[in-house]
Amino acid sequence: MALLTESEVRAAARNATTRLHARTESLLREARQTAHTSFDVFLSHSRLDSELVLGIKVILESAGQSVYVDWIDDPLLDRSRVTPTTAETLRVRMRQSQSLIYIHSANASTSRWMPWELGYFDGYRGHVAVLPVVSGADQTTFRAEEYLGLYPYVDMTGRALYVHRNYAEFKSLRRWQTEAELFRPTS
After folding, report:
1. Which residues of the chain have pLDDT under 50?
2. Would you state the CATH architecture of domain 4-178?
3. Residues in Cβ contact with 102 at an 8 Å cutoff, skipping those fewer than 6 apart
4. So where are the chain's domains?
5. How far apart are the first and last CA of the chain?
6. Looking at the whole model, is its pTM more than 0.85?
7. 83-97 pLDDT, tens digit each
């Protein structure tokens, strides 16, 4: 089991664009044309991490997941400002999603929206997991800070994605998304 590294995620984004012989912007424009009314994953992220977001979207989609990314699926949203209109659009999209994956990156702490999305989705559906994108040498364990430690985390083994409560207790992403009981309570 290993956490995703920035270099792996950025490579996935670059490979996707290279494979299709298109710039990142062209790939995103194509993604916008595919309208969804439901998603497996609402991807909560910092707007400063566009290449990481694209790479994670590619990785999740290659695992059979449909993924909502606000600036791809709703390009007219203005996430730079907190507005009631943007909040309502994001609420609708979260209600259309089976799970929320929070991309924990160096930029996550600067996001105005990520804590709000995490809290809303946790209260609404409960299927929230943190996907740490690491840049250091330790790629096997995730030590969450503050409230992120309340949530399970996502890692990848081979091409399979898993949601971990801890190192020893985990489920496949698909199983975790569809089960009512996220993990058995610990005593």
Report:
1. 187
2. 3-Layer(aba) Sandwich (3.40)
3. 44, 45, 108, 114, 117, 118, 128, 129, 130, 131, 148, 151
4. 4-178
5. 26
6. no
7. 899 999 999 999 999
